[in-house]
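Reopening this ticket.

The earlier resolution said the output was attached, but the attachment link was broken on my side. Pasting everything inline this time so it's all in one place.
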Amino acid sequence: MISEQNVPKTIAPSTKPDLKLLTIGTATIACAMLLTAFPAHAYVGPGAGLSLLSALWAVLAAVFVAVGFILMWPLRKMMRKRKANRETAKHTATNVSEHHNS
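Inline output:
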């Protein structure tokens, strides 16, 4: 006698579209649309390019200055601490020498 547990069940074919195929198709269509250039029939003067370049330089300069300040922060803190320690040592040495002279 054959039990139902030993009989393999058949898997019904999926009715949903294959997601991988849909994604590849969508990516192909998107790439084709992006690579196809249509004429704009418009004039872009040199002023627009110069303003774009100046804006780009401003953004790059702001990023470099921000990174520079972040990187210099520990160095500045260390220098301030060293200066405070020197002033404290100088002040302490002055007080000790005045105490010995009295």
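Reporter confirms the inline version is readable. The helical segments are 19-35, 46-101. The CA atoms of residues 80 and 86 lie 10 Å apart.
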